Amino acid sequence: MVKEIALAALGLLLLSCNAHSDNPLRVTEITEIGTEGSSGDFCADFVLSEKQAQDYFGHARVVTQKTVHDDYDVLPCFVRGKGTLGNQRCEWEINAGGTGHVNCAQQSYLTACKDCLPR
Amino acid sequence: MATLKNGILSAPHVHQRIYAGLEKGHLPHVHALVIHQTGAPTAQHTFNSYQNSGHGAHFLIDKSGTIYQTAHLNRKTHHVGKIKSKCYETRICSKAQLQAVATILLQKGVSYSAITKNLHDAEKIKAYPDRYPLNEDSIGIEIVGNYNTQASAYESVSAVQNQSLQWLLGELFGFFKLSKADVYRHPAVSYKTATEASTATW
Ligand SMILES: [Zn+2]
Questions:
Q1: Which residues in chain A are contacts of B55 at CB distance < 8 A?
Q2: Number of domains in chain B
C-alpha cells in the first residue's frame, strides 16, 4: 500500500515536471485540421500554425477532466499534430474551445487555457 | 416507494448528502433531466470537489449503484452551462430559425466563446421544449465514471449504475410529470466531450 502511494506520488511528480510550462511539449508537426460531424463552416476559421500550437502548449496548464467539463466548451473544431516531450514521442490535439490533450509514450494529460488561441 | 417533500427525495436507497455550496437559488419548474459523468474515479473525488466548487448536480450515482442526493430538488444547481440550439442540432429549425442560428454560429471576427455565449443567450429566451434544458429548469444526475485521457473517453456506465439511474428516472418522471423525451445526455445539450454519459441507458 505504502509502495503504491509512493509510486502514485512519483507518477504525479513526473507528470507535473514533464508537463510544466517550463518544459512544455515541443510541437514538431501539424497532421490534421478537422471537424467532428458536419460542422465544416463553423470550424472553417480554426486553423493553427506550428508556432501557434507551440504557443498554446507553452501557456496552457494541465487540468483534470472535471475542469474541462465545468469551465470549457468542447467544440467540433480541432487541430492535431505530433511532438516530443523530453525523449518521448507524442501526439496532441487542440480544441477550438481552449482545451487540449497530449498522448506520449509514457504519459497522457489534458490542458486548458482561456486566452491561448488566436480566435 | 419514494416520497418528495421540501425538495428531498426520500427512499430507502437514496442517501442524503446535501452540499449547500452547489445550491444556487430557487428552482421553480423542472422540465427536464440531464445526465452527466463525473470524470473522476470515485464518488469521494467528486464530493471533495463539491466542498470547493460551485459546479455540481442534484444526484450522484456511485460505482456501487448507491444514489446520493447532493442538492434539494427545489434549488438550482450549475450543471448545464451554455446550451446549443435544439432546433439546429435536431434539424427541425424553420427557415427563419435556421437563418438566426447560422448568423450567430458563422459570425466572423469574434471568439468561439463569444459565439457559444451569443447562441446560449438567443436560445434561453425560448420556452421548453423548443430549447434544451437550462440550469433554471432541470435536475442534474451525475454518474461516477473516470475519464481515460489516453483513449479520450469516459468509462462505460455499469449495469448496476444504469439500474439505479432507471429507478431514479422513473421516480422523477412521476413527481415532475416528465417522460423519456425529457432526459438528455449532457453533450447533447451543451458543447461537451461527446462520450460523457454516452453509455447511460433508460
Ligand atoms: Zn456534464
A1: 66, 69-70
A2: 2
The interface predicted TM-score (ipTM) is: 0.95
Spell out the per-residue pLDDT of chain B, length 202, in tens: 799 999 999 999 999 999 999 999 999 999 999 999 999 999 999 999 999 889 999 999 999 999 999 999 999 999 999 999 999 999 999 999 999 999 999 999 899 999 999 999 999 999 999 999 999 999 999 999 999 999 999 999 999 999 999 999 999 999 999 999 999 999 999 999 999 999 999 9
Are B65 and B111 found together in one domain? Answer: no
Among chain B residues, the shortest Cα distance to A36 is held by B194
CB contact under 8 A, A103 and B106: no
- Please indicate, yes or no, if residue B178 is contained in any of the structural domains: yes
Output the domain CATH number for residue B76. 3.40.80.10
Q: Do B39 and A65 touch (CB under 8 A)?
A: yes
- Kindly report the pTM of this predicted structure: 0.92
Q: Domain of B23?
A: 3-80+133-189
In Å, how far are A53, B103, B130, B202 from B92, measured between CA atoms?
A: 37, 17, 10, 24
